[in-house]
Amino acid sequence: RLGWLSSLLRQLSPASGAETSLAQANHLRFLATLLAELSWKSAPLAAELLHSETLRSYVTHPYKQVREEAGALFALVLHTVSPCVSPPSPSASASVALLQEVESFVAHLQAECHAVSSLSGGVLALEPTAEAERLTARAAREAALYALRHCLKLGRPQTASRLLPALLPAVLCAAASPQPPDLSNFGKSVAVMLAQAPMEPQLFVALVQGIGAAANSPSWHLRGCLLPMLKLLLYRGQFLEPAKENRDMLGALLLQLLGDAQQEVREATMPLLSGFVRLHGDEARVGVLEWAAQRASAAQQQVARGGGAALAELHAGVLALEALVTLATYDVPLWLPAVLERLASFANAPQPVKASVIRTFADFRRTHQDNWPEHRQRLTLAQQELLADMVVAPSFYA
């Protein structure tokens, strides 16, 4: 009963250069309404749309409203092939053909985004160097973000599950790109929505692996932009099987980011490491303490000999100790005094290590001052004197 409308809309398809952007956006909007009405019966129409060069050119259209409608239309096509839609058996062949067109369209969109697949082992660059390619990549990334947001906001996260491993690099690059700011904020919001969406264990592993591949990017903006999404995945990983493998994978990724060459990335990772240890208990705490002691001891000797490259390694070890101290905000467990002693030994290290040590002891004094008469009983006299020297500023007249 809607065949005549489908034929009419295909015949009236506006050319990219012959119609206004408003006419092109309205045409996509009409097609989206038709796809939503037909549901699984729209498989032939959806396959034809994905195969056409018109829709493929719209994902890099210079006007935002056309890209938005193209992304929404693609999201409705994904809903047609999603597991929640159960077509009758006569439509099975059409669904297979549509799935092939979806994979082809995703490959085209990924190529236009200029984002190397995280799972292919390539190094993920933030943006292309050429100006024309940069503008094309930004437009395609925005279209991909619109498609993902459309799936998530309509409560259909399962429709986007097949896209995430391929389009995750585009989402992360858009979130980390400083220009334009609107695209960056859009990418950050979609990344957080993806981390909160329902997902199967296999998809969770694929996302963490994609983030791990992006952590090797030469852009520190991209590496730092991984943390908001990773923070949510740290919490969700404890409820997905296999829990132990997820814990080890996330812990290794956190330690990699904690040892990043950029100071801002290291310091932003420290609170996440503290929360990770709080979630996984004593076993994770012992592992982080061993890692910090090994990293700091080896780097301290190199820094003393004038090795500037080892300063980041030393700072990473000190930040790991700081993460352990922040676990006991209002208590002094048995393992904490030894950590404080170890941390105090780096008080005279170069910056930014010294600033981290001073900040840690200042926060420790602030959070423990209300119950300090009780907490000090758990420290030896030498440890109390050491702590007093760390939290009281030296006087010229002393």
From TrEMBL:
MF-aspect GO terms: peptidase activator activity; proteasome binding
GO annotation, biological process: proteasomal ubiquitin-independent protein catabolic process
GO cellular component: cytosol; nucleus
All copies of domain Proteasome activator complex subunit 4 C-terminal, residue ranges: 313-398
A Pfam short name: PSME4_C
Origin superkingdom: Eukaryota
InterPro entries assigned: ARM-like, ARM-type_fold, PSME4, PSME4_C
Protein name: Proteasome activator complex subunit 4 C-terminal domain-containing protein
Species annotation: Calcidiscus leptoporus
